[in-house]
Design goal:
two-stranded antiparallel ribbon; elongated; mainly alpha
Amino acid sequence: FYEVGGMKLFAAIFGGEMLVYLIQKIARRDFYYWPPLPLGPRIFAAVVLRIVMKVVVDWTALMQFRHPNEVGGLCFSISIGVSAAFALAASLMYEANSRSDEGQKSKGNDILLVGGACSAALLAAYGLFLFSIKRRYVKTFFSTKMGFKFDQEDFTDFEDDEHKLGIFDYGEHQWRKDIGEEVRVWLNERLEGWLNTDPSWFTDVHKASIPEWIVDDNNLFQRLRSEIKGGSTSEAKDNGTGDGGIVPSSLEEP
């Protein structure tokens, strides 16, 4: 692309593809990553990591990045197809551009042959790979599941409280809009019991991750704060997400 159309064509093709990818992520509410970060760092991390991960997938086809929290299964498979198409298109453009120069015509034919063979080999290898793996995994390469839906399954797909409590490991932007009320009702039904019995899995980290807005009884929330080992109500601080969560002094960075 660069040799035929220069930097403008190169930037338009690859930049345009990246722009389409980012727009569909934003349109599907799948742009942000899962960690509970303030808005500014959340946007910065999303822009940088989405671009980096897309480039890694485009150039390496690292299949672990088909995860819903990364590019997603369907986007991964589309990326494989687009990479093959781009290789063939670039070869065709170079071959067509070299026809007017007898000295370059043979080179253009060779590049077209190699480019076409590489494109075909990539698609054939991917098809063979999908055919050879266990059937239950094939669908993960075409899944349209979004990251926030995958994260919400920690709450919706499990019955035990220990698993459900994992929802607070994710930023509220991943779950509050869809299941926030369900989480609030569930937590308020159980929080006092956890504080009374102190189950082993209800750790200080979990206690610190529960935001203030979700606890209906302020006295219960103050008790939650005070029971974080190494911290107290006065020592607890906002966790930086703007959601009223706290971090115990024993967990703060030095």
